[in-house]
Design goal:
This protein is 28% helix and 21% strand. It has 443 residues and is of the alpha/beta class. The strands form four sheets. Strands 1, 2, 3, 4, 5, 6, 16, 19, 20 and 21 form a ten-stranded mixed beta sheet that branches. A hairpin with a 2-residue loop joins strand 20 and strand 21.
Length: 443
């Protein structure tokens, strides 16, 4: 079936233009400008005048909690929350139960996603102090990369032996696998925690969280990761940058960086209003750090925006800086939150599309996604720029049932999300016949 998406404003590759696209057999087959007509008659027309069409968002950093933590989230529930937020592809993290640190655990996730995910998917393989030999068993054309926790993690995923870290960077380079890192120095965090507990009690108020997981802890760990990447020539992707000083470490062609909507939206003043709802690792820090990150997105020092979507049950978020769980659900509202920053003039709509759609595809070498191009999969989003609405509890799709964006008013709305040439989401309704595909990589 040839489908004509008629007359939206298309935002792609740094430009906006009025046009249309033709979709056939899951792919984009024509891109029309202005009043150009399709080469042959279409079987169906989707009227999109007054809407914006952008490539589907690719989220390189999500925690969908399955297997083993499914009381918080599942691949089925969170992929639908993602679709409602304009996300068409995701790369999921390995700290599930069991952790994705064996080939068998990786295969299990792919099997679940093939059955349950409404959008496209890939999964990181988690590095440990003992599993570097398994990297060779990975297919670099199917696995998005290695996830490495440097200095801060749970279970056995903390890699703190220098010899093993060097092996990880060296082997990943040999196999052409990117290494995505969580950088916080554990020894600095431990010292900060001891000092602040002496001052403010065993579970200090959440406002102390950015003092415990400090800017120094982030900088020192990121500095070490960058040194290793430079030594071995490894493709390094630094996740959730949260400080201005870390930005000074960037610039090498093999080193890229991500910021999250949370770190671009909130600052330490918001702890008084939102409490542990915005507690995450690395911590949300001061207003000057947030503004430095925003500037770095606008000027290109930060390469992409990924959510670090990490659902917890409300009961898990009870406590303070030490006892409340870290992480928040955000994927349903990440695009809308960034469009709000576009409205505020923080960066342009073209920059948003670069950071949320193009850059993830380019950095991870994803095959035929991330751009509105002939021959690419028809993953795209139709956005209404004039649909003011307030986020309410009953509109939240993530299984955990809450969001730090509840009560927020957005001017933009996601009207339709298309995945592989099929409409997966339309104005609050999901097409349960749609299934995502496993991402593939040009390596």
């Amino acid at each position: 079936m040839r489908i004509l998406i008629s007359d939206p404003i298309i935002v792609n590759n740094g430009e906006q233009f009025q046009g249309s696209i033709v979709v056939n057999n899951g792919k984009i087959v024509e891109i029309l400008r202005g009043d150009e007509l399709p080469h042959t008659e279409c079987d169906r027309i989707v009227e999109a005048s007054g809407l914006y069409l952008i490539p589907g968002v690719i989220d390189d950093h999500v925690h969908f909690r399955e297997p083993g933590l499914t009381e918080k989230a599942t691949i089925a529930t969170e992929s639908r929350a993602a679709a409602a937020g304009g996300v068409t592809s995701y790369m999921e993290m390995p700290n599930t139960n069991p952790q994705t640190t064996t080939i068998e655990a990786l295969k299990e996730k792919y099997a679940i996603a093939a059955n349950d995910s409404i959008i496209n998917y890939s999964f990181f393989f988690g590095a440990t102090n003992r599993n570097v030999a398994d990297f060779e068993k990975l297919n670099a054309k199917k696995c998005c990369g290695i996830k490495l926790f440097m200095g801060s993690s749970t279970g056995n995923m903390l890699v703190d032996r220098r010899e093993e870290l060097e092996k990880i960077f060296s082997e990943a380079k040999r196999l052409e696998l990117p290494v995505a890192v969580h950088c916080e120095d554990g020894s600095i965090i431990t010292a900060n925690s001891k000092r602040i507990k002496e001052e403010a009690g065993e579970d200090p108020d959440v406002k102390y969280h950015p003092l415990i997981r400090s800017a120094e802890a982030c900088y020192e760990s990121t500095k070490f990761a960058v040194e290793l990447a430079r030594r071995y020539g490894t493709q390094l992707h630094v996740m959730h940058i949260s400080t201005a000083r870390e930005l000074e470490l960037l610039g090498d062609s093999n080193i890229t960086a991500e910021a999250t909507p949370a770190h671009l939206t909130f600052c330490d003043k918001d702890y008084a209003r939102l409490g542990t709802k915005i507690k995450c690792n690395p911590a949300i820090k001061g207003e000057e750090e947030r503004d430095a990150l925003r500037k770095a997105v606008a000027d290109g020092r930060i390469d992409l925006i990924g959510t670090d979507h990490a659902p917890h049950l409300p009961k898990d978020k009870v406590g303070g800086a030490l006892k409340a769980a870290s992480g928040m659900p955000s994927i349903q509202f990440s695009l809308l939150a960034m469009l709000k920053l576009v409205d505020e003039g923080v960066f342009t709509l073209e920059t948003l599309v670069e950071k949320m759609c193009h850059a993830p595809a380019r950095i991870f070498n994803i095959n035929k996604r991330g751009f509105i191009e002939k021959g690419n999969y028809a993953d795209f989003v139709l956005l209404n720029p004039d649909a003011p609405h307030t986020v309410t509890a009953d509109s939240i799709i993530s299984k955990c049932g809450w969001s730090p964006f509840e009560g927020e008013t957005f001017n933009w709305a996601v009207e339709q999300t298309w995945v592989n040439g099929e409409c997966a989401y339309k104005n609050g309704t999901f097409n349960e016949e749609v299934h995502g595909k496993a991402l593939t990589f040009n390596r």
